[in-house]
Amino acid sequence: MTMREEEGSTIHARVAETLDGLARRMLPAGSDFSWSVEGDAVRLDLVWIPRSQRGSGVASRFMKSLVAACDRIGLPLILAADGAEESTALSTDLLLEWYARLGFEVVGVTREGWPMMQRVPLPHGPATEPGHDPMFLRAP
Fold it and tell me: What is the tens place of the pLDDT at every residue in 115-125?
């Protein structure tokens, strides 16, 4: 293993521990969450909340914590804002607004035509400490 591969493996392990730990602590039973490392970014592949829990704020709290964790690690987040086909899911337009409030910006389009969004990590410091940043959420 080269130094670059070892460094990448260490970072991947740290990201896995952080993100999977957040999911275990914060997401209700029946939720689904998957992610991958794409280049030097974390790609959110899926955040799915059971219908019975939608509208309760659990997804917002989870995403705010996820964003704060990636800020601390220093990795950008990328995702495709694909509106699910379920009648209780947000439309793509509402998803774009929701993700924009979390600091994501549209950076392209997927092959399937979904908006591709990215959030660049904020520098760690006073602006990201509790009480200073409206996007920061204390750990549950």
Answer: 999 999 987 64
pLDDT in tens, 61-102: 999 999 998 888 888 999 988 765 554 466 778 888 989 999
**Considering the domain boundaries, does residue 71 fall inside one?**
yes
CATH code for the domain in which residue 95 is found? 3.40.630.30
Of 38, 44, 55, give the one whose Cα is nearest residue 19.
Answer: 44
Which of 62, 73, 76, 64 has the alpha carbon at shortest distance from 121? 76
Q: What pTM was computed for the model?
A: 0.74
**Range(s) of the domain holding residue 9:** 3-128
Is 16 contained in some domain? yes
Return d(Cα 23, Cα 47) in angstroms, integer.
Answer: 10
Query: What's the CA gap between 119 and 41, in Å, rounded?
Result: 10
Half-sphere exposure of 86 (CA within 13 A, CB side): 8
| Residue 31 is assigned to a structural domain of this protein | yes
Evaluate if residue 50 carries a pLDDT over 50.
yes
Residue 59, Cβ neighbours under 10 Å: how many?
A: 19
Residue pair 33/27 in contact (Cβ under 8 Å)? The answer is yes
